[in-house]
Structures are given as structure tokens and as C-alpha cells.
Amino acid sequence: MIDPAIETLEIDLLQKAIADRYGYDFSNYSPASFKRRVVAYVKKSGHTRISDLIPPLLHDRNLFRSFLYAVSVTVTEMFRDPQVYKILREKVIPVLKTYPSIKVWHAGCATGEEAYSSAILFAEEGLADRVQIYATDINEESLHIASEGIYPIEKIKEYTQNYQQSGGRGSFSDYYHARYEAVIMNQDLRKRLTFSSHNLVSDGSFGAMHLIFCRNVLIYFDETLQNRALNLFSQSLVPKGFLCLGTKESLLFSTVKDRFRIIAEREKCFQLK
Amino acid sequence: MTKQGVQTYSTVVIGGSAGGREALIELLAQLPENFPAAIAVVLHLHPHSDAADMARTLQKHSRLPLQEAAEKERLRPGQVYLAPANYHLLLESDGRFALTIDAKVNYSRPSIDVLFETAAEAIQKKLIGVLLSGASSDGAEGLMRIKALGGYTLVQDPATASSSMMPGAAISRGGIDQILPPAEIGRSLLQLVGGKN
Q1: Domain containing A13: what range?
Q2: Complete domains list, chain B, with CATH
Q3: Cβ contact, residue pair B90, A36, below 8 Å
Q4: pTM for the whole thing?
């Protein structure tokens, strides 16, 4: 029988080892979900205890890369929460159209599905030539997948439904080419996207953004780290810039709540005052 | 294990799938408004459904207030929380909820095992786990974890469940304290947490 108190100690030691060796600090991640992902990795890699991971991770950088991929969140989908994209079309895009050039940041983009979704949205709104989309994550493996723009074909049915519900104006199949078991996103979408490494725990602000997406990332952080990230976003937005969070995330209890006004309550779209 | 009613239980976690909603209604109908424990519920829902709507529907059958669980929210006694659709619901050891969009567990998000296992570790001996009707094996592993960490386990009598697979899967693993119809589970909870009817 494994004692949860000892496991908590093992997690602390593992986090310290990783922070000192590789500079990734997970100490402000929500503990229960972080532990679940670590325990799943322990089982998958044939170890018994969490602390068994420490020696191999300290000595093997490649192993650390696979660990980082396993413990960071890589679940996402195209046009996740279609209603959010509808709100963007109705309430946010009309404002963004008034700018000569538009900068968008997807913070914590995982494998890039939502970044491609916003590229499609901007293309349909006639803003393809004016928009530059920056998508960042801590996870190099995810960023690699994102920049390739290749996704499993079995997801396409769900994505097509999401696209239609989001108020899509064309046919979703216009935006990819199917090849065997995979689809590759169109080149003209991919050239609007820049994928790069950024850590919300330790890195600084990203300048003069008009719209920031950070959806279902903050739920993995404790309040200290949530506030850090939200402060970073408020510093990275132009005045009157927009922030879009996950539908179960909130600004209400954060230190930045007075800096934003609500654009859409359920869809968690906010505007910097 | 101490005698029933002597140990103080602070939290009840409930899981259900097909037929679980109806069983939950019967169970909640037994609980008085001064029920002194917090209740967190995972029902398997369609990913695009709304747990807040479900809470409003179930409210007609419950004296206890129901709401959708929010991330970082602290559990309060006498309150029933429903897991949001398409998110896993977890319990932290500081007594607050967490949500994730991690991969499905047992083909489900929310997964009953995810709530049960994290609650078992967070609450340990003060936790009661209840598994209701469902056509899945989600929850069986979580109930074992609750039992192993000193909590109390109840399963709906499969003969009363519209889908007996989920209760059956848990019972076959062993370590279940009581197997009862939903209304009796409700009455048993009341005895266990020491609330007055």
C-alpha cells in the first residue's frame, strides 16, 4: 500500500530535481492532476515509485523530453467550445477589423489545434493578410506537431461538427488535405502561424497583442501561478485588447479582475479596460 | 473500521452513468437540508451538455442545494456539486476542487475513477464513496482506492439498477461495505455522517 503522504514528498523531491537540473518549475501546478500524470508516467515507464524517476531523469536529457511531453497537457481540439468562436465573430472580430495589423497569441497552445482554428476564423473574416498568430507552449514535442500541422484523420468528423457550430462560413474540408490516415492543414493557414517555446511560469511578456487565447491552461495552475499568467496577459495586451479563457476558468478571483470588463460571461471573453 | 456513525465523514463522492441520474434523484430525496457532509457527483454526460442545467433539473428533487463544481472552489458541507461536462473533476488535499481536460479515463471525461481516486487521497478516512447504475466499469478502481485509504464504500444493488454493469464491476472487485437500493443508500449516508432526519 502506497502512502499518499510519502508520495507527496516524492513529488516535491522530483520537482526540485527537475527545477535544479532543467529549469522547469512545476511547484505551482495544481497538485492532484500533476501527480496523476506523473504516476501514469511511472507506470508506463515500468517503475514502481515516483522517486524511481529521479536518477534517470537527472542523467538523461532525452528521457526528460519524453517526461515533459507526458506531464504537460496535450489534449485539445479544433474549434473547442464552438460557441466561443461564434462570440469572437460577433463581438471581437468587428473591433479587431479596425486595426491595420492584428497580433494574436495562443498561450499554452499544446499541439496547435486552436491556433489553426483561429487562423481559419481570421481567414473567413477577410483578415488573413493582416493577422499574425503566435502560438507558444513549454513542450517542444507539442510545438513540433503543431508546426507540422498534421492531425489524425479520425478527429476530422468531430472538428467538422465543431466548425459548423462555430458559425463557419465555408466547408471545413477546404482547410486541409487528407493523406492516408492523416490530414495536413493548408499552407496558407500555416504561414500565418508562428510556433515558439514560452513558459508561463518563468518567461516574460509578449508585446502588443490584440487578442490572447489561454484556454484550459490556468486550470492546471495554483492561484499564485494563475495570477502570474494573468498579469503577464494584461501587460502583453494593447489597451482594449481581448483575452479568451477556458469556459470553466475565471478572472473573478484573480488580482487582475478590475483591469478587465466582461464581453461574454459563459464564453469567458474579456476586454482590457 | 470504527462502528457506523462513530467515525465522522466529511465528504461523499458519488458516481453514476446510464440510469445513474434516476438513482441519484432517489438517493438525494432522502437527505435533509441539514445534511452535514459535502457531496461531489460525477455523472457521465454528453460533452456538450451543461451540468448547471442538470443541477437546476435535479434541484426539484433535492432539499440540498445543487450546483456545478467550479475550479478552486472549496467544498462546503450540505452542498451538492456536479462535475462539469467534458472536464475531469478532482479533489485537492486542501479541500478544493480542480478541473482538467486530460485524456478520457475509462472512455469518460468526467471519469468517476478520477474523482474517487483523488478524493480518496485527499480525504482518506473521512470519505464515503457511492457507485450507482451504469453501463461502464468506471468507478470500480476508485472505490478500491477509497476502501484502501480507510474510507467507506456503498454500491447500488445491481438488481435495482437500470444498468447493472457498473455496480457489478465494483462488487466483483470486493471490499464493498454495503450493497443497497438508492433510497436506502441515502438513509445509510445519513446514519454514517450523523445527520438528524
Answers
A1: 4-71
A2: 11-193 (3.40.50.180)
A3: yes
A4: 0.94
